[in-house]
Amino acid sequence: MEKIKVMSVFGTRPEAIKMAPLVKALEKDERFESIVCVTAQHREMLDSVLKIFNIKPQFDLNIMSHGQTIIDISNKVLKGVDEVIKKCNPHIVLVHGDTSTTLNGALAAFYNKVAVGHVEAGLRSYDIYSPFPEEANRKLTGVITNLHFAPTKTNEKNLLSEGVNSEKIYVTGNTVIDALLSVVNENHVFEDKTLNNIDFDNKKVILLTTHRRENWGKPMENIFKAMIELINSNENVEVIFPMHKNPSIRKLAHEYFDKYSGRVHLIEPLEYVEFTNLMAKVYLIMTDSGGIQEEAPALGKPVIVLRTETERPEALEAGTVRLAGINRENIATIANELINNEESYKVMAQATNPYGDGMACSRILEIIEENFRFIRGGK
């Protein structure tokens, strides 16, 4: 009986994390032939995730180069994925989320008249320039998608409002929860000695991450000033900031935080298992990341979102995140409330995670099999 050829295309660290459990599920299922094509839009960060999950891509486009633009990335991905599709002839190409790899991988499949499956479909901020270029990428990908794997009912509603056929939308939960639950270990020992020496039990440790393009410059300065205000007004607070590789972000972090080295711990970016287990240990997370808004609630950690909007409104509705924007005073006010008001903290920490139960991958495989059953001799 012929197997269903499923080609997974991804290239950034967040994509790899969310696609990894799906790839592993495909590898183990005899109904499918799994083909993995990575673009390496992120190189080092992608490789660390591939190693963690023991994924060995059949195709590696290796497009990463210093100083390349979005257009450079798009051209390389479109051409590279097109060549792989012509070699492999997959029945369906899976792309994830909203990167330049996502859009151009889907476009290559469309041009070859191959079905597109969009994992994490239907996220919307409704501001075409924020996040940029992600909001446009995910909307454009949706136009040429055949199977929309929406994490939540809110995502499904977004797609329906845009005229997507309801029969092609499936609410699956988010694969990031599948990945997360597979690697968290309460006895985890960190490779970074700094982290092992932090008193997570008696200190209220804040994990800060910020890297988004729209927060570069003045917004990031506001965020850093708010963090300094927090440690100055709360003796039991410490901050961990894994610095993004961007030189401008690192320079600014050192300018603001070096004088507070006992209270603000500047560390190198962490690979996935390390970062996930760090999230599990801290008291509170402050971030401009989209993925963390989904992951942290599964660990019972409140999230303060350092952005003016979020494409994850279900997290706001569920009460697992609070939107602080990029105003210093507002950021500090919300954080102080969660640090000093035990009831406010418990309400967020105990809220139900709207992003699923860790079974998204098995649902996606069943949906693919149902839609391509004719290939395997079914009706």
Automatic annotation (TrEMBL):
Keyword annotations: Isomerase
One annotated GO molecular function = UDP-N-acetylglucosamine 2-epimerase activity
Q: What InterPro entries is this protein classified in?
A: UDP_GlcNAc_Epimerase_2_dom, WecB-like
Query: Which Pfam families does the entry mention?
Result: Epimerase_2
Superkingdom of the source species: Bacteria
Q: What is its EC number?
A: 5.1.3.14
Query: Which source organism?
Result: Clostridium hominis
Does Ribonucleoprotein count among this protein's keywords? no
* Chain segments annotated as coiled-coil in the UniProt record: none
Identify this protein by name.
UDP-N-acetylglucosamine 2-epimerase (non-hydrolyzing)
Residues of the UDP-N-acetylglucosamine 2-epimerase domain: 24-369
The record's family statement is: Belongs to the UDP-N-acetylglucosamine 2-epimerase family.
Q: Which NCBIfam families match?
A: wecB (TIGR00236)
